[in-house]
Structure formats: structure tokens, C-alpha cells
Amino acid sequence: MNDVTSLTAPTGHLRDYWELTKPKVVALVVFTAIVGMFLAVPGLPPWRESLFATLGIWLAAASAAAINHVLDRRIDAEMIRTRRRPLPAGHLTETAALLFAFALGLASMLILALLVNPLTAVLTFLTLIGYSVVYTVWLKRATPQNIVIGGAAGAAPPVLGWAAVTNNVDPNALLLFLIIFTWTPPHFWALAIARRDDYARAGIPMLPVTHGIEFTRLHILLYTILLGVVTVLPWLTGMSGLLYLAGALVLNIIFLRYAFALRKGGRVELPMRTFKYSVNYLMMLFALLLIDHYIPLV
After folding, report:
1. C-alpha torsion 255→227→240→275, nearest 10
2. Other CB atoms within 10 Å distance of the CB of residue 110
3. How confident is the model over 114-138, as pLDDT tens digits?
4. Contacts of 221 (CB under 8 A, 6+ apart)
5. For residues 77 and 63, what is the distance between their CA atoms, to the nearest angstrom?
6. For the range 1-10, what are the long-range contacts, defined as Cβ-Cβ under 8 Å and sequence gap of 24 or more?
7. Among the listed ranges 151-165, 197-211, 214-228, which one has the minimum average pLDDT value?
8. How many whole angstroms separate alpha carbon 53 and alpha carbon 30?
9. pTM above 0.85?
10. What is the distance between the alpha carbons of residues 31 and 177, in angstroms, rounded to a whole number?
11. Binning pLDDT at 50, 70 and 90, where does residue 12 land?
């Protein structure tokens, strides 16, 4: 019987392993890391460190995503949004997913430690553990503030990119960290409202489940206001110029309109629309930082 089971155990297709990496999420992670690399130097960053750092950070983020799939497999099976993922759908075994995650993580650490610098390797490893273990195993199930505290791991990529090309952590890198850290709660709580029933069914203490939707809407608005203040800091500190400031103000006004509309209740599709805008918001904000870095208007 064991021989038959092993022969028929799912091995998965390439697309299943690709899905384990959460490619859309990882793409945003890598993009913010790359922006950190370019902002760290006045001209162009060194191509060798930039290339290997990008690869190493991508592999680490993909590894963390795959570990998250394994640790959340039972929760994913209970949620409509995630029950078609490779593990709950039975396309991959837990062993195959773990081996895949380990291989990605090991390759990441070797590349970063040997071809970039040890500081980036250590910071990336701590970020990987922070997301895949501290957040997924503990925080996600322990407190409705899970995404606030755990957001530190998701905010780290610009710091990793900065460290990769300078071998240090600059206050400006921490400012980029602060932007993503402040962005994370309104971004994720909008999704949590849209998927509240899923999280309740799975027993995950997300804020809309433990404190209600009205309470969550208020905190989305408050965090969005705080985000607007934080995103002005690059201009106030001289890190960025008027081009960035003008674009950031426009993006923040739109985000605030979503947050105020959400606070009033609005249409049933508004939380998901707010969530999708928040993704575009962060991409455009970091794109503005990058453009302003090379086309300064003061």
C-alpha cells in the first residue's frame, strides 16, 4: 500500500511550484528592493552587486512564500480565496513544497553571502524568518495586530537593496522601510474586510473578525492619514524633490478618497477596490522615488 501511495503521490507541474512563490507579491518585494539599490547611490549602483542582490532577494522572498503555503495549508483549505492553491488542491505534497522552499532559501543565502555581502545575507535571512515563521506561525494566529507587527518583514526589501550596494543601513533606507510599514495595515485590512467570512471560518483573528468592520474602516482611514504624512518625509529630509512630492500628494489624495468612502460604508466591492488601488499606489510611489532620484526638480 505504501508503495502504491508513493507512486501516486502528486508531484506537481512547474506552474504549481511557480504559484508557491506568490509571483505577484514577490514582484512587488523585488521592485521595492531594486528602488532601494538605486536610491542608495548618486549615480547608477554597481551592476554586479545589484544583479546578484536582485536574484538573491527574489529567491528569499519566493522561499518565504513557499514556506507560508506549507504552514497555512490547513487554513488555505478552509478559505474560498486560497483553497485552489497547490497544497490544499492536492497538486503538491508538503514534502515537495518544503524541499522547494529550502532549495530556494539556500540558494538565496549562498548568493547573497558570497556574491553580495554578509550584511545583506543576514538581513535577508532575518526577514525570511520574520515572515515565514514569526508572522505566519505566531502573529497571524495570536493577535488582530498581526499585520501591523508582521509588517516589518514586508517593509524590509528596500533596506536589503540599500545594504546590498552600500554594505550599510542608512537612515534614508529606514525611511523607505517606514513608508511600507505604514502602508501595510490599510492595504491588508481592506482585503481582510472583503474576505472577513473566510478569515472567521478559518479562525484567524484579523481585525474585522475580532473588532468588527466599522472599527477596521476607522483604522484604515487613520493609517491612510498617517501614511500621507510619512510619504512627505522624503521631501522634507531632502531625499527627494518636488517631482516626487507632487506625485505623492496626488496618490495620497486618491487613497484618502478610498479610505473616506470605505469609512462611510459604500458599495460591497469597495474594500477590494481599495486593496487593489493600494498595490498600485505603492508601485507608483516607489516609481516616483526612482524617477525623482534621476530627474530632480527642486
Report:
1. -40
2. 13
3. 999 999 999 999 999 999 888 888 8
4. 256, 259, 260, 262, 263
5. 21
6. 9/93, 10/90, 10/91, 10/92, 10/93, 10/96
7. 197-211
8. 10
9. yes
10. 13
11. low
